[in-house]
Each structure stands twice: as structure tokens, then as C-alpha cells.
Amino acid sequence: MNMMIKNGKGLELAGNGHSRPFLEERLSDLLAQADHLMTERLYAQARWRRIGVIEWRVLAILTHQDGLTMSELAQRVLTKQPTLTKAVDRMERAGLVQRRTPDQDRRRTLVLLTEQGRQTAGPLVAEARAQESAVVSEQGEASMRQLRVLLRQLIDRMTGSERSDTGHPPRARQRIGERRAQS
Fold first, then answer.
1. Which of 55, 61, 82, 93 could disulfide-link 51, Cβ–Cβ 3.0 to 4.6 Å?
2. How far apart, in whole angstroms, are the C-alpha atoms of residue 99 and residue 91?
3. What topology is assigned to 25-161 in CATH?
């Protein structure tokens, strides 16, 4: 049986051969630390442009897929809807996004990038891609591809969804299909 012991640097598992503190080995903490290290420089550039992390994520997501509903966007930005609403309000006042209600479904509100939003997002997305390319180059394409597969599998198991070759979970594939059918 493993026992938790406390030393001056954090909690460690005793008797299991681990020499690192528990929080340095915990998967969720490793993922959080990797995310922080990979995005810190990018977020600093966004803050320099007076754009917060949530706003940056909104810009990046809408650059790839413009015209999402607030609930779709909240899910993709990884935040709660009230937090997203406040961020979109700020972004709308800054001229980065606009809200539109489709004539065919007045219950939905879509968030779209403005031209200013596209111009703001462009350099940030380019920098993010460059940073990601540098990490992939440093770590190796095969290793990073394997890491992505493992992380997607972990996410799918934890959310109870399955992904197709498109990388989208079933509900997202269904919504994408519905949008294509409407076009």
C-alpha cells in the first residue's frame, strides 16, 4: 500500500519508487503545465494587444469556423456560457466580433468575426502555428502525432464520445452535416 508523505517540496508517494513530488507526476498537472508553457508567450502577445485568453480562443476558433452559436463557442473555448457572454460583449464593443440572428431560426445567435477581428486574429494564429511547428519539430512528428491520438482517446473516454477521422465528436459531426445541408 502506498502512503502519502509530505516533504518540503510537496506530496510524494512513498514506497512506489517515484522520486518526484506527486503533483509533478499527476497527469492533469503535467497537461496543465505543458499547456501553460506552450501558450504563455502567445498569451503575452495577446495581452499586449489587450486581448485576454478567452478572447484569444474565441478569435482562433472563429478564424477556423466562423458563425458558431454561443453554446457551441462556449464548448469549444472551454468556458461557461456566462463567462463567454461577457467576453463576447467586450469583443463586440471592440469591433472584433458581431452577433447575428439567422432569419430561419430566431432562437439562435451566431457569433461572427468582423474584418477587424480577422486582422487581429491573423498574426496571433500565425504565431500559434509557428510555435506549434517548433514544438513538433523539436519533439518529432511521429511522437507528436502519437501524443495527439492518445490525448484525443483520453478526451473521448472522459466525455463518452467517439471521434471519426475528422477529429470531431459525433454531435459536432451531426451539426456540421446539418450546416452543410442548409447551405
1. 55
2. 10
3. Arc Repressor Mutant, subunit A (1.10.10)
Tell me the per-residue pLDDT of 112-162, one tens digit each, with 9 for 90 and over. Answer: 999 999 999 999 999 999 988 998 999 999 999 999 999 999 989 998 876
Contacts (Cβ under 8 Å, ≥6 apart) of 159? 169
Is the full-model pTM beyond 0.85? no
Residues 6+ apart with CB under 8 A from 141: none
The answer to whether the Cα torsion of 182, 105, 56, 79 is positive or negative is negative
Distance CA 124, CA 113 (A): 14
Q: What phi and psi values does residue 54 have, to the nearest 5 degrees? A: -65, -45
